[in-house]
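Render Potassium-transporting ATPase KdpC subunit in 3D.
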Amino acid sequence: MKNIFSILKFTLFMVVLLAVIYPMAIFGIAQLAPNKGKGETITVNGKVVGYQKIGQKFDKSNYFWGRPSAVDYNAAGSGGSNKGPSNPDYLALVQKRIDTFLIVHPYLKKSEIPSDMVTASGSGLDPNISPQGALIQVKRVAGARNLSEEKVKALVDSKINLPAIMGTATVNVLELNIALDELK
């Protein structure tokens, strides 16, 4: 009986610690973060349209497209395909993405498509593409919106995020598409 009482006390202590105190501590720390731990939202006209760090699906010709997603952009369950580069199913999927990309961008050669436009990221939620991935879409987007390619290219150039110290330059697709909608 003495052992059972000790075990029950320990269990109750752990429940209070892990189900009450720890979550409250994390919540309190989150209140010190930007946007009080609710993520880095992007708003347009007072309405939240997305998150800066989570990719979204854009598939219309008048918008820039982001990286493909292995989880269909479901932020509740991020993940990659977990298929290696020699897996026949994976190679077929990448080839299908290449074929689709070339149909919509007939002015390109297969060798001109950056890998980030046909391969999903490890999380499946990457909000960024390479500057090359954005620049090869300029002709399509400009044509779909009846804008000059120079104007759309200048917009892409203005949205390139350079790395602070190390890394590669990126373009946030949601921010680029919002700026595109604001373009007159």
